[in-house]
Amino acid sequence: MLLTKGVLLILISVLRTFASQEPDPWTEAQSLMATIGKGINPIDIPHTERPPVAYTVSYEVPLDYHPDDEYQLFKRFWDAEATEEQQRLSDLLIESTDKYNNTDAAFTLAQCFLYQHYGFPHSKELAELYLNKFNEWTRYSNSTTLFQQGVMYSTGSVGYNTTDAPKGLLYYQRAARLGSIRAKQVLAYKYLNGLNVPRDMNRALLLYRELAEQIRHKYSDEQWNVIFPYTESFNIRLPDFDDGLLGPQLSSTKLSTIRIKSARPDITSSVLTKMRGGDIMLRFNNVDESSSFALGSDLEDNDDQIVDLFYIAWDEYKGTYTRARDCLKARKLLEFSVEEFDDDVYNMESLQRYFYSKTLDLLGHIYFTGEGLSAPDLSKAEQYLKRSVDIIKDVMEIKSRAHIDLALIEQYHHKNVSQAMLYYQRVQNSRVNTGIVEYQMAKIITEFNQQHLGDPFLLMQTAYMKGYPPAFYEFAKMTEQGVNNKYNTEDTVNIFKSFVENSESIMAPELKTAFGELLMGHSETALWLYTEVAEQGFERAQISAAHLMYQIPYKYEAAPQTPDQRKLMAISYYTRAFKQDNIDAGVVAGDIYYNMGKYENALSLYRSAALKYSSQAVWNLGYMYEYGLGVPKDYHLAKRYYDEALEFNKSLLVGVKLSVLKLKIKAWYEWFSHGDSFISTSAHKIMESMPVLLYLQRYLEDVSSSTRVIHRTVVENEYEADILNNLRYLGRAETRHHTPNPDSIFKSTTFDYGDVFPMIIIVCLFIGTFAMRAFTQRNNWNVRVNGVPINRRAPQQQQGQEQEQEQQQQANPPAGNFDIQMFAI
Ligand SMILES: *[C@@H]1O[C@H](CO)[C@@H](O)[C@H](O)[C@H]1NC(C)=O
Ligand SMILES: *[C@@H]1O[C@H](CO)[C@@H](O)[C@H](O)[C@H]1NC(C)=O
Ligand SMILES: *[C@@H]1O[C@H](CO)[C@@H](O)[C@H](O)[C@H]1NC(C)=O
Ligand SMILES: *[C@@H]1O[C@H](CO)[C@@H](O)[C@H](O)[C@H]1NC(C)=O
Ligand SMILES: *[C@@H]1O[C@H](CO)[C@@H](O)[C@H](O)[C@H]1NC(C)=O
To answer: InterPro entries from the xrefs (predicted)?
Structure first.
């Protein structure tokens, strides 16, 4: 009795407390979140919901950064821009977190402030606050948030704060133990490179292999063996939208931006002429008015349409950086093309027939893979692929990619391996082979024990080197088992690493999110996302993250104003990328040190890059010696470096010749006038800015320096409306819009007298020489300079000649001649 009474009392008191307190607002927050929506990646926005004519995507990257600016933006959002729903959601989540210790609310808040979910502004400070709470409350048991906090400590919240690498490491380790694949990849990368941990190959191998196994098991056997799924890759370096880290001509790393919208091939280019054996008349754009195929006066001729349709379909099939792929649309376009032009195949010129064959090939491939269909249709696929091969068989020596799919159908569907082998061998040595041929051959040889057909190990190695993803894994397994008695732990680790990094859709889907955020103008969020992936060891993400933190200024611009921690973080990523064989990144890291006035550090990076044959680095070394930056001034050494830079890369010819000439004049001038002291004081001004060649190189590039925001505009002319009705074309080419700003070229040029004087002399020399040439030629005099007759070989500027050669012709003779005659010191 007493007991029940007591229980009742307790019950009542519990009920009372419930009644007196409002319920946890988390449930209301949840329904609000459902109405607001987390946000959609602009890349995924359906085409139909876009503006009908042109869809322009641009992204802006502020040059300067200061934590206070971030706070101002944050404040402005909540003061003025936030919608009522957002305000309410924020209030509810905060209340739920603070009053009810609701872990889900804390988690949501942390994610909102990190990734701008529900349109919240980015805030590193608040994200950290709520991550901390969440981790404490969940006793450090959630691998997602542990990984995020690991990134925070290792990078000092991306240069927001000082870094605490040991603490970051602890978080990564715990996250990895709880099964986070991203944390495992971070650790593997750290062990491989000895970052914050002692270098340990075996641990790196263990981790990378474990990841590789996990990835392998995510694919079905059919995907693995027959059709490896296509990935819309966003694994790019952002500066590659602008011709690479060092700009056009000077960057030595291959561009990573391969999925930009297809430019229609330049029909007059030599590539196409070669492709067709050079024996076909080019008749593009010569619209034949009498053509019976003219569908309307505003239409280009039909042959054009085959090419156009193919490229539009190809873009839809592969997807570009600003829009997701659409296989259904691609298929419809291709089918339209086939319906329209199939009857005319044998009247087509070779070029059109070639593109028509590609059309059939892609259509067959789509039916083969079943992309954008409910299921693959092998018989239809085979029919298209065979026709694709047939129609060009007798006209061209081109190896059609269709052979590969045909072989796969023979091998896995008809089980006729000998026929498959025939197809494979036909395209083995052609450009269309991405390594899949060797991969399948190695499999066949192993399975049917046909060693006389080749060595599976070597074939798999070739497949790996050609970049076929499953071959990375298979080859790593082979090397690990010591096939052919060649075992090397480091090599094996690196192959596993490449495989893991190749599996972007599993290991780093954030790359796509990151680019989407950038397109939406959320550069700090994009930076955070790139940083997460950079920590995992992706070289391109390291470049992108570093690029968002610190951009090398163009022309005479002042260096970005950012806290030193952020600069150091950028240097750290550039250096990591440099260690992964991105030579340009080493130069850029050196340039940041240079701009910070840390010449010794800059020098050592330039030296490392010079050892890897970076001509820009060698040139910079010469510059450092010329001005005595971080080293004693030494003109002889400077000249040697300038000459060496020329040896590495002839495209530096003009820059080098001028520098060397300038150097000589300068040495002479110094000796003649004041000696060293005068130059060294005035050289200070130069030190504040960048080496002269970088000026030259960036001279023509745009940037609006007044707003201190770099605009990168990616414009896509949208192919909208009803495709099948409207065949009118359509500019393409994903181009960046440059807004040249001539003013800035002349801004704040700080030369010292030591430079101005030689420059004037050089200019006089040029003018003098050309004047003399013209004069002697006209009068037909036979004048010799340094024993070389100059009137016979006046430089002729031929059109279409490479610019480089042109410059060579102009710059070489005067520099050479006068150099010796007048300034032999
Ligand atoms: C929430 O957690 C704090 C300690 O972090 C504790 O003092 C407080 O009593 C908790 N509140 C509720 C409602 O559980
Ligand atoms: C971490 O916690 C959040 C929120 O409770 C949850 O949605 C997520 O699935 C958790 N992640 C892991 C890996 O447990
Ligand atoms: C910044 O550093 C301070 C002091 O080391 C630390 O208390 C704080 O949590 C750090 N904040 C971030 C966002 O890393
Ligand atoms: C010089 O640099 C350009 C641009 O990066 C490159 O295309 C060319 O191959 C280089 N030449 C040599 C000899 O390395
Ligand atoms: C495989 O294909 C070849 C060549 O087309 C043919 O001669 C052979 O009979 C086929 N074998 C089988 C088992 O179908």
So the answer is: Sel1-like (IPR006597), Sel1_AlgK (IPR050767), TPR-like_helical_dom_sf (IPR011990)
CA distance 70 to 313: 42
Question: How many domains does one find in the chain?
Answer: 3
Q: Is the distance from the beta carbon of residue 614 to the nearest atom of ligand 4 less than 6 Å?
A: no
Q: What distance in Å separates the CA atoms of residue 434 and residue 504, rounded to the nearest whole number?
A: 18
Query: How far is the C-alpha of 690 from the C-alpha of 555, rounded, in Å?
Result: 8
Q: Whose CA is nearest to atom 6 of ligand 1?
A: 101
Angstrom distance (rounded) from CA 518 to CA 512: 10
Report the b/e string of 67-94 with b at 16+ CB within 10 A: beebeeebeebeeeebeeebebbbebbb
Atom 13 of ligand 4, residue of closest alpha carbon: 649
Is any ligand 2 atom within 6 A of the Cβ of residue 111? Answer: no
Place of tokens 């790019």: 236
* Closest residue CA from atom 7 of ligand 1: 101
Pocket perturbation via mutation, ligand 3, pick of 124, 125, 161, 163 by most ligand atoms within 8 A of CB:
161
pLDDT at 151: 97
Using only C-alpha atoms, the chain has a radius of gyration, in whole angstroms, of 32
Q: Is the CB of 253 under 6 A from ligand 4?
A: no
Q: Indicate whether residue 142 lines ligand 2 (CB < 6 A).
A: yes
pLDDT in tens, 143-162: 999 999 999 999 999 988 88
Judgement on whether residues 722 and 658 belong to the same structural domain of the protein: yes
Q: What is the C-alpha separation between 819 and 785, in angstroms, rounded?
A: 11
Task: Note down the domain range covering 277.
Answer: 262-319+325-398
pLDDT tens for 315-362 read 889 988 888 899 999 999 999 999 989 888 888 888 888 889 999 999
Closest-approaching ligand to the CA atom of 414:
5
Q: Are residues 785 and 705 in the same domain?
A: no
Q: Say yes or no: 813 and 675 in one domain.
A: no
Cα of 132 from ligand 1 centre, angstroms: 15
- Helix or strand run (H / E) with residue 151: helix 143-159
Place of tokens 């610190």: 550
Q: Ligand 2 centre and the CA of 180: distance in Å? A: 11
Residues 706 and 805 in one domain: no
- pTM of the full structure: 0.79
Which ligand 1 atom minimizes the distance to the CA of 133? 5
Asked whether 157 lines ligand 3 (CB < 6 A), one says yes
The residue type of 22 is: E
Write a three-state SS string for 697-745.
Answer: HHCCCCCCCCCCEEEEEEEEECCCCCCCCCCCCCCCCCEECCCCCHHHH
> Which atom of ligand 4 is nearest to 251's Cα?
5
d(CA 753, CA 682): 7
Ligand nearest to the CA of 420: 5
Q: Phi and psi (nearest 5°) for 101?
A: 50, 40
> Which regions of 261-329 does DSSP assign to beta strands (E)?
none
Question: Cβ(143) to ligand 2 under 6 A?
Answer: yes
Locus of tokens 């600069």: 567
Residue 791 domain flag:
yes
SS3 call for 558: coil
Torsion of CA 188, 189, 191, 196, to 10 degrees: -130
* 638 neighbors 626 (Cβ within 8 angstroms): yes
Average pLDDT, the chain: 77
Q: Which atom of ligand 3 is nearest to the CA of 152?
A: 14
558 or 119: which carries more pLDDT confidence? Answer: 119
**Torsion sign, CA atoms 39, 45, 49, 52:** positive
Give the number of other Cβ atoms within 10 Å of residue 482's Cβ: 11
Q: Please tell me if the CB atom of residue 137 comes closer than 6 angstroms to any atom of ligand 2.
A: no
CB 220 within 8 A of CB 606: no
> In this predicted structure, what is the pLDDT of residue 814?
30
List the residue whose alpha carbon is closest to atom 7 of ligand 5: 419
Tell which of 398, 427, 458 closes a domain. 398
